[in-house]
């Protein structure tokens, strides 16, 4: 076997787009945990050593605004309510608990400490307007401010599980997720929080709602959950990974991204029915993802990693160990069914993905211990497709024509 970047097909190279996640120069080797943009040019990233970075030119340059050095102090979340006003929350270290809340009122020129009233670790912050905001953290901690952070008061969460993410869809309705598959919901601005049935005991690390009814929660073990009724019911989605997913973000109702370890970026274009891997160009752990429009997005992670895309991260093939070309697809051209055959037994698990000429992943199926796989392709429109066959041994890509 040879390691190479798989070429989709020389005759198709002009119509297929590769990944456009581009490494940016962050100017730091500190781990970065959260990213947030106020407009197309202005963004912030925070992380270890209480570092705060800012860009005013869409990520071309990042400057350090605030830092307490390389110690254990960690800023876990950043949120801006307007171009001038923002908050960053975090903790001192896991051995000696202590909440951190910082605020800027001048676009990050100065950051000042606020009194949190708690010694618990804070992991996430969200504001519903210029004055009202929430922070969540360890031991079920939920804090609320109604005066722009001057005062923070503890709310009753009815759980002692650590909470890692908070998101509000309007002034009254919010969600918090955490350890043990915990999902909490409030419908009255945090006065009361009630537990929802998530269907998992895995740790949930991030929650996001593209609209009032539809939401997603991701976490440990590649967990992706979706609700279509405001959290009344949550159902598991297939993520094609068992790695932890620390962040999820949707740029519209159908298009979403989740990031993970080893530079993994997952994308869906159909509301989570299918998630496909993108090529990020890094093997560093990615911790946070944020999009400012349908095409422009950022993700940050370990060792000062900042990546940017200008085309929605479009990709459908990654660099990998390739399979020797022993696989065949027939009939080809096809119209109803195809058979993928090999002269040897395929490894324990085989993942078959089919992509259209726009690079969109439109089919994903898993198979176990087979040397002949049949797939129904009757739903595919006439045209040219690529079939990606992925096993533990590597990847092979075949051209498919539907007539």
List the helices and strands and how they pair.
Elements: E1 3-4, E2 21-23, E3 32-37, E4 43-47, E5 52-55, E6 63-66, E7 74-80, E8 86-91, E9 99-104, E10 112-113, E11 122-127, E12 133-137, E13 142-145, E14 153-154, E15 163-168, E16 174-178, E17 183-186, E18 194-196, E19 204-208, E20 215-219, E21 224-227, E22 235-236, E23 247-250, E24 256-259, E25 265-268, E26 276-278, E27 286-291, E28 297-301, E29 306-309, E30 320-321, E31 328-330, E32 337-341, E33 349-355, E34 361-368, E35 372-376, E36 383-391, E37 394-402
Antiparallel strand pairs: 1-30, 2-29, 3-4, 4-5, 5-6, 7-8, 8-9, 9-10, 11-12, 12-13, 13-14, 15-16, 16-17, 17-18, 19-20, 20-21, 21-22, 23-24, 24-25, 25-26, 27-28, 28-29, 31-32, 32-35, 33-34, 33-36, 36-37
In round numbers, the mean pLDDT is 86
Identify the quaternary structure here. Answer: single chain
User: What is the straight-line distance between the termini?
Assistant: 33 Å
Gyration radius, rounded: 22 Å
Q: Could you name the CATH class of the largest domain?
A: Mainly Beta
CATH topology of the largest domain: Methylamine Dehydrogenase, Chain H
Q: Percent of residues in beta strands?
A: 35-45%
Number of strands: 37
Structural class: mainly beta
- Inertia-based shape: globular
Helix % is under 10%
Number of domains: 2
CATH homologous superfamily caption of the largest domain = YVTN repeat-like/Quinoprotein amine dehydrogenase
Alpha plus pi helix count: 0
How would you write the strand order of the largest sheet? 2-29-28-27
- CATH architecture title of the largest domain: 7 Propeller
Strand count, sense and barrel status of the largest sheet are:
4 strands, antiparallel
pLDDT < 50 runs, ≥5 residues: 1-19, 315-323
């Amino acid at each position: 076997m040879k390691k190479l970047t798989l070429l989709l097909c020389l005759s198709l190279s002009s119509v297929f787009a590769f990944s456009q996640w581009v490494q940016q120069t962050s100017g730091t080797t500190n781990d970065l945990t959260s990213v947030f943009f106020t407009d197309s040019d202005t963004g912030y990233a925070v992380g270890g050593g209480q570092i705060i970075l800012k860009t005013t030119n869409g990520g071309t340059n990042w400057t350090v605004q605030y830092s307490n050095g390389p110690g254990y102090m960690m800023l876990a979340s950043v949120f801006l309510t307007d171009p001038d006003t923002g908050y960053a929350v975090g903790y001192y270290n896991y051995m000696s608990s202590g909440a951190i809340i910082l605020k800027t009122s001048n676009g990050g020129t100065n950051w000042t400490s606020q009194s949190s009233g708690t010694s618990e670790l804070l992991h996430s912050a969200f504001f519903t307007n210029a004055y009202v905001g929430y922070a969540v953290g360890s031991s079920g901690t939920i804090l609320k401010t109604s005066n722009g952070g001057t005062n923070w008061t503890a709310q009753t969460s009815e759980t002692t599980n650590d909470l890692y993410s908070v998101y509000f869809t309007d002034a009254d309705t919010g969600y918090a997720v955490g350890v043990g598959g915990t999902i909490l919901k409030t419908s009255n601005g945090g006065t009361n929080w009630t537990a929802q049935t998530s269907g998992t005991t895995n740790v949930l690390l991030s929650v996001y709602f593209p609209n009032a009814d539809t939401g997603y929660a991701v976490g440990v073990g590649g967990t992706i959950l979706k609700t279509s009724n405001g959290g009344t019911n949550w159902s598991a989605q297939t993520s094609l990974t068992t790695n932890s997913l620390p962040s999820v973000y949707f740029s519209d109702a159908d298009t979403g991204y989740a990031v993970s370890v080893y530079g993994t970026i997952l994308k869906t274009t159909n509301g989570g029915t299918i998630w496909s891997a993108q090529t990020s160009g890094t093997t560093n752990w990615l911790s946070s993802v944020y999009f400012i429009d349908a095409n422009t997005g950022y993700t940050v992670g370990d060792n000062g990693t900042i990546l940017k895309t200008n085309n929605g991260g479009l990709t459908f093939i990654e660099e990998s160990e390739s399979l020797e070309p022993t696989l065949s697809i027939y009939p080809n051209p096809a119209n109803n069914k195809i058979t993928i055959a090999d002269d040897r037994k395929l490894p324990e698990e085989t993942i078959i993905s089919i992509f259209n000429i726009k690079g969109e992943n439109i089919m994903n199926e898993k198979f176990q211990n087979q040397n002949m796989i049949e797939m129904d392709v009757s739903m595919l429109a006439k045209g040219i497709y690529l079939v990606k066959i992925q096993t533990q041994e590597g990847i092979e890509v075949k051209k498919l024509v539907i007539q």
